[in-house]
Design brief:
alpha/beta, 3-stranded antiparallel β-sheet, disordered N terminus, about 60% helix, about 950 residues, 5-stranded parallel β-sheet
Length: about 950
Amino acid sequence: MTVSSDSNSTVGAAAPFRVLGPIEVSGEQGFVPVAPGRQEIVLGALVLELNRVVETSRLIDFIWDHGPPKTARAQVQICISRLRKALTLGGVDATIETRPRGYVLRAPQDATDIGDFRRLVAEAHALARDGLKMPAVEKLRAATGLWRGRCLAGVPSEVLAGMAAQWDERRLEAVETCMGLLLELGRHEHLVGELMQLVACHPLRERLRSHLMVALYRSGRQAEALDVYHQGRAILTEELGLDPGRELRDLAQAILTHDPDLALALAEPAEPRPVVATPFSEAAQERSADPDPVVTPRQLPADTGDLVADGRFVAAVCDAVAEGQDKGRLNVVLVLGGPGVGKSTLARHVAHRVATERFPDGQLYCDLRGPGGQPVGPAEALGRFLRALGVPGQAIPDALDERAEMYRSLLAGRRTLVLLDDAVSESQVMPLLPGTSSSGVLVTSRGQLTALPGTRRFGVAPLNPEQAVQLLGRIIGEHRVESEPEAARVLGHLVGGLPLALRIIGARLAARPHWSLASMGERLENEHRRLDELAHGELSIRASLSLSYDGLAAADRRLLCLLSLAEGTEVPSWLGAALVDDRTPHSTDLLEPLIDMRLLGITAMDQGGDFRCGLSQIVRMFAHERLPAEITEADRAGAVRRMVGGWMALAERAHREVYGGTCTIVTGRGERWHPSESHVQRCVRDPLGWLESEQTNLLNAVELAARSGLDELCWELATTLVTLFEARGYPDLWERTHQVALTAVQEAGNERGQAAVLGSLGTLHLYRGEHEAAGPYLSTALEIFERIGEVRGQALCLRDLARIERHRGDDDRALALYTRAERGFLRARDVIGRAYVLGEMAHITMRRADFTRTRSHLDEALGICRSAGFDRGQALVLRRLGQMLTYQQRYEAAEHTLLEVLAMVRASGDLVGEGYVLHDLGRVNAHLHRREQAVQYYSLSAKIRERILDHSGAAAVRSDIVAVLGRPMTSVG
């Protein structure tokens, strides 16, 4: 790393952080050395994102392009520590702050040469708008002069280099603007040499080439100007297979014909002009102002050709949808009706009628009922809409309100139609409403949705007798209806004019032209069998599915049958590969033939960035019928084992990401099936988020394992899911999965599994505040673990038994048990388990006012958690620190620490931790005589603890409220 100086008076003193070239740092003590490699990468990333949080996972990606080591988080922390020390010793006016998910470099905006560049370019554009072109040129020259090479040159990170490249691009844009201004000032003869060099270095940049052509032409070198054009066209054709852009072609034509517009203006215009090179660059400037134009989505499902409805009613709905544009306010049209009444068919028809003329900027569509009848959440719907509008997946925010804000911004001023089909509730629809009157919204629902503002409501009624006969005729043919008009009217009457029922009848009659309408009516006359007859349409569906099924290759038929073994409404993309044990690089391609034949439907993108497929109940039933004929029992058992093993492998990896290793859990010998590493890494970037998003599938896998005799995988998966249940507050699911697993291991005589499940059930009782109920589970588990020699299991039980003794008030007994547990975790090399025990021992010594030993325990525990990257453990230890400060009556310091912990647990979604910290903050504020704030914290804590079924904890909080108020609150939360 070298030291350079910048004598440009426009810039002033060199910025402390310089990345427009090799990375350099300077402070009050002069040059600040930064070790090459990892430290340069970390510092470079922090500087590029100045005053913004850079997540630790991103820093790991920057440093290790492929396969980071297990110690990656610890190594990042070491880099941060050394950088902090270097900045402090060098006297640099900047700090690196720790945040729950990463780090932020806190410094003034002018602390980087990037900041200087931004400022100078902005000043140049302001001067140019005022007609002060030469001062603008000087600013741009100063801005581009800040470069000492490529941005972050020499920093060994391909990913970071991609981020840095945007600043090299902005430098070229500034150079192009500068050249354009100089051309307007008549400096064309002096620019030819410089422009030739720029074009040689960047032969594909058409704006630079156009500047050179104009400079040559104005210098009386028309032939050379045209030769520059032909050279550029040849390069574009050879390297990219493209022709030059419209602006460059128009410029060449203008040069060829001596267009007078190319001559340099003799006088400045009265109004300041935008910064342009030639009249031909306006379109290019418009594109550069909007580098990522919003695409035009066309998501409407196909219109129904045989719709039967009152024409005046349809016209009224169409007018209502477009009415908002005319009245200057957002208009929401709500089409209401019961099941099978045809509201969705009508809405799609209306949408197609108004789309082209009134909403040319696009149409968005979402079935809000979702696959399997599960409502689609507004966040998921917004994610789909934002992707359809051209927003890259990585740019879509996580928070619902931020997604809604981005969505409204993209639709502002655009004439877009939004069709929301089968909405369940107002809360599902509200975030999906655009913010301006230019768009229209059409919603169908079975409910009234009375809380939706500004709605026009249209109720869809069943068809009248004439309409029912008309629909039937369009499905089966007018001649059949005309030959039996009375029977047709009877059919309409028997199903109450419901279009869906009539379509089922029509499908059956169309498939059986020899059936009379009267015979169909006889089948429906029996009220006890009428629904059976209407559902009998599945036979036709079965026949239709058979045609698709028989057209599949043998391997694809086998895969469809195996997919019927999976439960749940959605199938992740890796599951097909697990079922057939395919380990090829693009194993998700296995599902494509089934998607092509419409036997699977793509429903969403998962957290890993891969598609998810919906398998309808009808297709699942059909495939399950074919299963015995296609797959042997042994192959079915193997497929189930791999499927459950895949869920186990992913859940285990998520646990390791949360805890920094296989800590605080007993592992077994169940066979894992490992999805591709790239998919796994994408999933576990947010491990708790992934566990929560796959919660239904994971619960199904536990139960499937139990039914299939996979007791080892069953108990391992159930106990691993405690990572989610404990952090996000799912005690009922904790109990449900463990009761299933306990039955499985008891029937199989699996002692290790029994001990693991019993011990975890004991922990569950402690989690709920049921200390005495936990004892028998833990004692039994400890006895088994001691018998089979499972050290980590013994330590876990001893840890929880110590918690029971603490609850009984026997701190001496608790401390002895904690000491035994710590030794066990040491033998098992379970650092997180040991850190937890140290934190609990600190609580005991704290209550004894032995603050020296308490601080020692906490410092050691905090160091372990930070080294392992265990964020939740850090929060637990810092909470103990806040409690110690409270014991020492250092209430302001305690509040500061506990507020930091509150931010951490909220960021990670740790509902249990949040409940505890809010209780602690209530106590601190009570000590500070802030009665109102104390009650507010207590109320929030009680609400959370009731939610997670911690009734004893909630009772303790209410007791503290009484102590503050002198009376109970009428309601809490």
